[in-house]
Amino acid sequence: MSENSGVVAGTHEVVEVQGPGAASFLQGLISQDVETLDPVKARRSFLLGAQGKLRALLWVSRDGDRHELYTDFGYGQVVAADLGHYKIRVKAVISGPEPAWQLIGGGGGVDASMGGLVRSFLREAPPQPEFLPLERWTALRIEAGEPVMGVDVDEKTIPQETGLVGDAVSFTKGCYLGQELVARIDTRGRVNRHLRGLRLEQATAPGSVVAVGGEEVGWVSSAAWSERLSANLGLALLKRTVLAGEKVQVADGTGLVVELPFA
Fold first, then answer.
1. Distance CA 236, CA 207 (A)
2. CATH architecture, range 6-167
3. Closest by Cα among 4, 9, 3, 11 to 150
4. How many Å is the Cα radius of gyration of the chain?
5. Band of pLDDT at residue 263, cut at 50, 70 and 90
6. Which of 138, 140, 183 is nearest to 31 (CA)?
7. What angle do CA 75, 81, 87 make, to 5 degrees?
8. Cα–Cα distance, 64 to 52 (Å, whole number)
9. Of 263 and 85, which is predicted with more confidence?
10. Residue 57 and residue 82: Cα distance in Å, rounded?
11. Are the beta carbons of 195 and 161 closer than 8 angstroms?
12. Is 247 exposed, middle or buried (0-12, 13-18, 19+ CB in 10 A)?
């Protein structure tokens, strides 16, 4: 395996929804079109609250009546509880959350590649796994532009701020929980922040303030050293007035704002 391949543990959980009513049930709750899913490739999705803000980031796959919802570690219970709240006279069973593993470099499981990163999810750890250090995984996900719920985004975040709407939202499938805000912003609105990448002058701790001309415009939520790019990288939710290509002050150094994923 290459230095950027291996198994990552402790980052994701999976919730399963199975039964004859599962597809129609999920179709009315999550932002992805459940009816067009397949068992070998997961798609991004959001679970939103009634006001249209994030409850969980999802990757979703479907194999017949069985649906797998992969989410960031610690948010599986949120997903299961929210789904359970709306499951009234639905012929479906919600189970989990259970631990899920990531296989970086592919080779099995449900494909969930993104932003140039080849990755799949596994329900069980492979035999004799070669584990990828968490620091290396953090760099890879930053390069690919993958935020983590509770780290880079939270329950106050609007879907359009994540930069994931193009992959995570179906605008043709009909109504789902929280759809009104997403649709309204898509047609005639704008958001105040956007998730951006930062190419940093020096190693920077998460929580460091990002500023332009002495004015705070956001803060670093994730940071890591990228072996591939030989650079310190970060993620930050920045004010919409801060554009890609702009230099910013970060802690005691500087940074360059870039679009995600990193080239």
1. 9
2. 2-Layer Sandwich (3.30)
3. 11
4. 19
5. confident
6. 183
7. 140
8. 29
9. 85
10. 13
11. yes
12. exposed
Measured between alpha carbons, how far is 145 from 260 in angstroms, rounded to an integer? 5
Any idea where the domains of the chain sit in the sequence? 6-167, 192-258
- The mean predicted confidence, pLDDT, of the chain is 93
**Token couple for 29:** 């709750």
What secondary structure letter does DSSP report for 201? S
How do strand 6-18 and strand 66-72 relate by DSSP bridges? antiparallel
Is-contact 112 42, C-beta < 8 A?
yes
Residues in the chain: 263
Rounded to 5 degrees, what are φ and ψ at 238?
-115, 155
Please report the pLDDT score of residue 70 as a whole number.
98
Q: Which residues contact 86 (CB under 8 A, 6 or more apart)?
A: 25, 29, 177
Compute the distance between CA of residue 198 and CA of residue 262 in angstroms, rounded to an integer. 9
Specify the 3-state DSSP secondary structure of 143.
Answer: helix
Report the distance separating Cα 206 and Cα 221, nearest Å: 5
Element (H, E) at 9: strand 6-18
Out of 2.40.30.110, 2.30.130.10, 1.10.10.60, 3.90.1150.10, select the CATH number for domain 192-258: 2.40.30.110
pTM of the model: 0.94
Report the distance separating Cα 94 and Cα 17, nearest Å: 5
- Cβ partners under 8 Å of residue 241, min gap 6: 217
